[in-house]
Design goal:
The protein has about 200 residues and is mainly beta. Strand 5 and strand 6 form a beta hairpin. The termini are far apart. Helix content is about 5%, strand content about 35%.
C-alpha cells in the first residue's frame, strides 16, 4: 500500500541554516503513489522528511547535470494529504524541465517530494536543498537570507530581518492605502525596494 511505499522510500533531513544538503536517487517507471493537485507528477516519487526546528526559507532544486528526466517538486505538511501542499514547482523554464522551489517553513515536520512528471519520465536525479534564515528572522547581511529576500528593517523597528522586497511583502509600507505591486503606484515591480 501507499504507507509501505512511502515508508520504504522516505529519507530524513534535519534543516540546518547554512548547511546545504545534496542527495541523489532514481525514479523508475511505474505507478504513482502521490500527485500534486497543481503541478501534477504522475510518475514514481521519492519522499524526504524535513524536520525544521527554527523558521527557515528552504530552496530545493533538481537542476543538476545528474538529473536526466522531467521532475516535479512539492512540499506538504502531511505526506498523503494533497490538501496540505504548501507549494509545488514543475519546469524551471520552457527549455529546462527540472524543478526548483522556494518556501518559508515554520518549525515542524514537512515532506519534500521529488516526483516524475508523468509515467514515461524515469531516471536519475540530484536534489540540492539549502536552508536560510526564515522570513522575519534576524540577519546581519544579505548573505544570511535566501536569494530574492532582503536583510532590512521593517518600520518602526530598526532591527534587520530577512524579508521579501518592499513591493511584495504584503504590507502597506508607505501608508498610502495601497499594498505592493501592482496595486501601489510607487512600485514598479515585485522586486522594487520602495513603495514611494
Amino acid at each position: 500500500g501507499l504507507g509501505d511505499v512511502a515508508r520504504a522510500r522516505r529519507r530524513h533531513q534535519q534543516a540546518t541554516v547554512g548547511t546545504p544538503a545534496m542527495v541523489t536517487g532514481t525514479a523508475g517507471s511505474g505507478v504513482s503513489n502521490l500527485i500534486s493537485p497543481t503541478c501534477q507528477g504522475r510518475g514514481q516519487e521519492t519522499v524526504y522528511v524535513v524536520q525544521v526546528t527554527e523558521p527557515v526559507t528552504m530552496i530545493a532544486s533538481t537542476d543538476s547535470a545528474t538529473t536526466n528526466f522531467n521532475t516535479v517538486l512539492y512540499v506538504r505538511e502531511a505526506c498523503r494529504d494533497a490538501a496540505t501542499e504548501l507549494t509545488c514547482a514543475d519546469d524551471i523554464s520552457a527549455t529546462n524541465n527540472k524543478s526548483r522551489l522556494t518556501v518559508d517553513l515554520a518549525p515542524g515536520v514537512y515532506f519534500l517530494v521529488v516526483d516524475a512528471r508523468d509515467l514515461a519520465s524515469a531516471g536519475n536525479f540530484a536534489l540540492s536543498v539549502n536552508f536560510y534564515r526564515g522570513q522575519g528572522e534576524d540577519c546581519a547581511t544579505p548573505a544570511d537570507c535566501a536569494p530574492g529576500y532582503l536583510c532590512r528593517a521593517v518600520a518602526p523597528s530598526t532591527q534587520t530581518t530577512c524579508e521579501h522586497p518592499v513591493c511584495s511583502d504584503g504590507r502597506d509600507d508607505d501608508n498610502d492605502g495601497h499594498i505592493d505591486f501592482p496595486n501601489d503606484p510607487g512600485c514598479t515591480g515585485i522586486d522594487d525596494s520602495a513603495e514611494t
